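Protein data sheet
==================
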Amino acid sequence: MKKSILLGAAALAAVTFAGAAADAGEVKIGGYYMFRLINADSNVVKEDASSVGVANGADDMDLWSHRLQLNLDMKASEKSHAHARIRVIDSQAVSGADTGSRTGLLGEDNHGNGTGAGGVNGNDALDWDVKQLWLETEAWGVGVKVGEMPVSLNDNILVNHDTTSFGTIMLSKSFGDITVVGAVVKVSEENISGMSAFNAGGVDLNNDGDTADAGEVAAVAADKGAGKDDVDLYALSLLGKGMGINYQATLAYLKAQSDSNVANALTTNANDGLSDWWLALTLNSTVAGIDLTGTLIYEAGMSNVPNLAAGNAVTKQFEEGDFLVALRAKGKTGFGGWNAYAFYAGEDFTNISNTTPMWSETWDTGGPFARDLMNNVFGNGTAVSTTQASGNNGMSSPSENVWGVGAGLTINAGGWTIRPMLDYAAVVETDLDPTVAGPESLIDSAWGGSLVLSTNIQQDTVLSLTAQYVKPDFTTAGNTAVTGHCAAGATGNCDDSMHQLMADIKMTF
């Protein structure tokens, strides 16, 4: 979405240290293998035989897919250990008689189908991906974590690492029931050299009426380049418990240097860096048997973003401050349990990480080749027509310019666990720039849900059956864009619902 240039699908992560998993001097290898059959329609246009473009007649996808993840836990002592999370195969299609040639596990396959020399199809990009790699130790009574690690802040809402990570140096110190955590996160180490990257769009950097002369570039080159191309996040978090309430308070500050991609994209002044800060509070307690977690986040608004006029609604969203409030609840019943959530993210709220805060499985499904249906509606990456690059025209994400509610049950019956879930979400403001006719957002709201059935078929081996459905409601702009995707002469709206059917076997080892 609009703010994905900050952390995108990113990671910060769990401020609690992972426990040592092996004896001193030993390495423990664990993980899981998961096989999945899937049928899905994961975008919001009808792609029947009457549609136009490359999607003609290809509304659903049917495939087999699998994933192998290895977890390495390496222990030198009780206080010094390192960890790695490696995807050997991730969302690879299962096909072919010769597995070794089909997947090309160690690089190029024998047919030039990878991303290396001679590769064309990108199969190798799915293999041997180190997702996380970090070291934990203690120095003079201070906990130390370094590397590319998982970090979650404020109920996975301010930052949600998912299975990705960012380079972090993290220090922690406990004082009784209170723990203070400080972190420096290298969001982006870009190594941009000189002015060529910044001035590719022909900006008059020194206001001399010329956008490409050597004198102009030389005038500012000394202030640019690889020394000023970083994007860094600084976070200070306080965790503790008092009067039966668990709490986390976080102050986070983002600095994008003047020659970073973030600054180059959002400011026309070559010497301007950008900055933003967030203040977040999360409280958790049990009231009358109900586990409640509430989060409030305030975002101040990004500095040095030019307040441009008509047609710059996204720029305005970056510049203005706003807030997010969320509440999760769960409890037990005689047959299992229940859970619910509600959240509101203001129209100008910019989150650090716009990956889903895991509101429900309808938002974030997980597993090989899964499609996150509610994310696809409100987040980045869903093509709703041949001319639109993002699900909601870049105007929302799962935690920005959206409000939502959902509720679900957990039912234990005859060795099976049954989990139904209902979800609804809507855009807070679809018309962000009143100086331009019509709304900028393509989608106004969506409703849907999930039904997951799972059972143990052997020790640490689970069979799961999943059905999901999401129906979006389009704005006038959305209807126009989607109609343009359909066959010439089509009348009315041709927007489409989304679904996902999956059967999984997962073995954890």
